[in-house]
Amino acid sequence: MEFYVGNLSAIVWSLALLAGGWLAGWVVEYFLLRKLEPSSWFRKALAGIGHWMGLAAGLALALRYRLLPADWHSAAVLAWKISALMIATVFTARLVGRYIHQHTVGLTGDLPSTSLAHHIMRGLVYVIGILVILQTLDISITPMLTALGVGGLAVALALQDTLTNLFAGIQIIASRKIRPGQFIRLEGGEEGYVHDIAWRNTTIRTLPNMMVIVPNAKLSSSIVTNSYLPSEEVSSNVELGVHYDSDLERVEQVALETAMTVIEAFPGGVTEPAPVVRFRSFGDSAINMAVVFRVREYTDQFPIQHLLVKALHKRFREEGIVIPYPIRTLDLGGLSLPEKLIN
Please, where are the H alpha helices in 36-138? Predict the structure, then answer.
């Protein structure tokens, strides 16, 4: 088969364009990655794919020199189109996935976004890319869509439970009432941080560092308490009792001073609104009260409760405020007990 090679310079220029495209893509990717923030979604999408874009651009320029026979050249152009579409599809899928990862959930740090939304959007981009490639190859996609429709109905009937969980997961994500990183409590008593919302189930990391796996359909139909809504700040309290002979005004003042000292010293404490003291009831052996305070996040209440109990116990002892043991006074109405029982 005869090759149409104009001259040696054409070959050199073609190879130079190919290598130059690869090198240019690598250089652009390198400098862009250095300029962008490490957490940038565009940076993560571009990593490792820039030089392939440069190679595709160099190949497009090189194909302008007809170094191959006409039929070979046409095949090479078609291969370039498919390669370019594949690179564009992969890059777009990564770009959309990273964007969803960083912006849809609206969280920072190492907390993951919902993998369900991430995978659905990436899968949609891949499907569109494949359909465009098939169209470029002059392959009719109408019979494929028809077959997918009939097959999809059969699959939907066979995977009814799985699809129920899938659409329940989509509904959970769309409602934005439960998101990764939030602390929730289920009606069954399970509680912890939402780790991920996947296509079939939601994983919850409990405080003892165990994973609770809940099907999405069950989660969407359960009563869920979300400590992050309407805001992350929550109220907590420490309950105790003081002796009936106590000066309640003095008790309230000492308790508020102690609570404010503890909360100001702990990073998770909230000073506005300030702590309050509420006397709640007349108990069997004490006047029951509670010191109510706010914390920045649900789990901050536990160390503050620990510190506040110790601080109140110490301060009350210094001030002579008695926290009584459980006691019960019996009024015998003037009757005297038998001597044997007294002794």
Answer: 41-46, 50-62, 70-99, 115-136
CATH number of 234-319: 3.30.70.100
Residue with tokens 């329940």: 168
Q: How far is residue 188's CA from residue 200's CA, in Å, rounded to a whole number?
A: 20
Average pLDDT over the chain reads 78
Q: How far apart are CA 224 and CA 189, in angstroms?
A: 10
pLDDT digits (tens, 9 = 90+) for 112-125: 445 666 677 777 88
CATH topology of domain 161-226: SH3 type barrels. (2.30.30)
Domain boundaries, the chain: 8-139, 161-226, 234-319
Q: What b/e string do you get for 298-319 counting C-beta neighbours within 10 Å, with b at 16 or more?
A: bebbeebbebbeebbeebbeee
Question: Which pair of structure tokens corresponds to residue 230?
Answer: 């309407």
Tell me if domain 161-226 and domain 234-319 are identical in fold.
Answer: no
